[in-house]
Specification:
heterodimer, A: 111 residues, mainly beta, five-stranded antiparallel sheet, 0% helix, B: 114 residues
């Protein structure tokens, strides 16, 4: 069963807008990762945030982690058409050090 | 530096046939993984190998077997394919097992079982 669940399932925005997607999880975690998957391709790692961190940045990406709410958010600022992809969170699941993936958020950025 | 490679890219099988999906990585990673991806289900872990010589079941191991042939190669075998195994299969590797390690993914194998 999924540990992390992304929300929304699908998101459609215009180029230049910001995109926010969320990941909620059930049990306490050590680490949370975000991945991107372009259509027909394998996943690509974006960013890792540890349980003792609250926010991390990487280029146009901003990830936050709220362990009290068991949730994380991924913000993509000034979206581009090339950001069109599915985004997945991966969390370790109580007692297992192998991360499990959520079902993903499908992002479409219209030019 | 090819990263993670998978063969074949596409495969069509008939129910009951067997096949082996091949995966190789050239990053000297210790850990390797096999996932399946189905629409609306995200990625589900089939088997993983934390280090050469070890393999462990993941979330959905039934109907599959794996072999960690050496540090580079990790194969997935379907002994008697079933339509429920129609999916996209991804191999991944990481420097070590653990949720703090970035996983590198191959391009996937699209398998259809008729």
């Amino acid at each position: 069963s999924q540990q992390g669940e992304e929300d929304p399932q699908a998101l459609s925005i215009q180029e230049g807008e910001n995109a926010t997607m969320n990941c909620s999880y059930k049990t306490s975690i050590n680490n949370l990762q975000w991945y991107r998957q372009n259509s027909g391709r394998g996943l690509v790692h974006l960013i890792l945030i540890r349980s003792n961190e609250r926010e991390k940045h990487s280029g146009r990406l901003r990830v936050t982690l709220d362990t009290s709410k068991k949730s994380s958010s991924l913000l993509i600022t000034a979206s581009r058409a090339a950001d069109t992809a599915s985004y997945f969170c991966a969390t370790d699941k109580g007692g297992s050090y192998i991360p499990t993936f959520g079902r993903g958020t499908s992002l479409i950025v219209h030019p | 530096n090819a990263g993670v490679t998978q063969t074949p890219k596409f495969q069509v099988l008939k129910t009951g046939q067997s096949m082996t999906l091949q995966c190789a990585q050239d990053m000297n990673h210790n850990s390797m993984y096999w996932y399946r991806q189905d629409p609306g289900m995200g990625l589900r872990l089939i088997y993983y190998s934390a280090s050469e010589g070890t393999t462990d079941k993941g979330e959905v191991p039934n109907g599959y077997n794996v072999s960690r042939l050496n540090k580079r190669e990790f194969s997935l075998r379907l002994e008697s394919a079933a339509p429920s195994q129609t999916s996209v299969y991804f191999c991944a590797s990481s420097e070590a097992a653990g949720s703090y390690n970035e996983q590198f993914f191959g391009p996937g194998t699209r398998l259809t079982v008729l």
